[in-house]
Amino acid sequence: MSEVSNPHFEAQFNMRLRHPERMEVYKGHLARGRTVKARTPSREICYGPHSLNRIELFERPDATAHLVFFHGGYWRTLDKDHCVFLARPFLEAGVEVSLANYGLAPEFPLSGIVDHAQAACRALRRERPNTPLVIAGHSAGAHLAAWGALAVAQDGAPPAGLIGLSGLYDLLPLLQTNVNVELDLDAMEAFAFSPARRPWPKTLGDAAVLLATGGRETLGFKRQTLDFAHRLRAAGVSVHEMEVADRNHFTILDSLADPADPLFKAALAVLRPGNVA
Questions:
Q1: Whole-number Å distance between alpha carbons of 135 and 144
Q2: Nearest-angstrom CA–CA distance, 138 and 166
């Protein structure tokens, strides 16, 4: 691994430098999540031996679909509690919601983190074998959502959809950033764990895919989404791309939690095709 970061890639992908205000955004999301937890019962699903191998499931017996969401944090920080606030509007729209935790770097290599994400999706598929499953995530969580979709598809039970917000799908540019200090990826590993560089199986051809970025994102994140969408379309997958006006890498989640926002409506269309209203 190179010890010297590339200033160009650092400017595109170093969110700690670009968004010092993100801590206030996190605090707001956590506070809204606590309100959801206080008002809405949930239960825990354990999918592995580590303390982070846990899923928080917000059940709805009459749900028409199930949304599982992976948090971001560059595979090295944050947890599901930062995304619990997303659950309420989807529950009210008739969608069951689960939030997945997973092991973090540097305790786990990226290969282990991907294994956790895939195990979480397989556990939910076992839990809800007959409910349409849509796998979603933000930033690094979008990367893990893609790997989770691949896992259940390989098992013969492909998801109904995939939603990626401000995602990272090609990891090679990250080799030249400080993110790789904790990930410690070499070029072969970055290539192998890049969903954008992996053949998309035909079993996923019927899955609806929504890929979104904020209008105030860096070109690096916008390009990640454009390139991944292009590769999916080349594999015969139907992809809807969105750029959410006036949102950045962190506030895009607020649009997903707003029933009046076009992003929420687009996500609901993936979860309830033909019956959005």
A1: 9
A2: 6
How many Cα atoms sit within 13 Å of 233 on the Cβ side? 11
DSSP state of 61: T
How many domains, the chain?
A: 1
Nearest residue to 43 (alpha-carbon basis) of 30, 21, 27, 59: 59
Beta carbons of 121 and 152 less than 8 angstroms apart: yes
| Mean pLDDT in residue range 75-102 | 98
DSSP structure class, residue 261: S
- Cut 0.90: pTM above it: yes
Q: What are φ and ψ of residue 167, in 5° steps?
A: -85, 165
DSSP 245: T
Residues of the domain holding 163: 7-271
The H or E element that residue 21 is part of is: none
Q: In terms of Cα–Cα distance, which of 228, 253, 250, 254 is closest to 241?
A: 228
Q: Is residue 29 a contact partner of residue 73, using CB atoms and an 8 Å limit?
A: no
| Residue 121 belongs to domain with CATH number | 3.40.50.1820
Determine which helix (DSSP H) or strand (DSSP E) holds 45, and give its type and residue range: strand 43-46
Token pair listed for 38: 């206080």
Q: What distance in Å separates the CA atoms of residue 136 and residue 143, rounded to the nearest whole number?
A: 9
Q: What whole-number distance in Å separates Cα of residue 257 and Cα of residue 95?
A: 13
Could you read off the pLDDT of 169-186 as tens digits, one per residue?
999 999 988 889 899 999
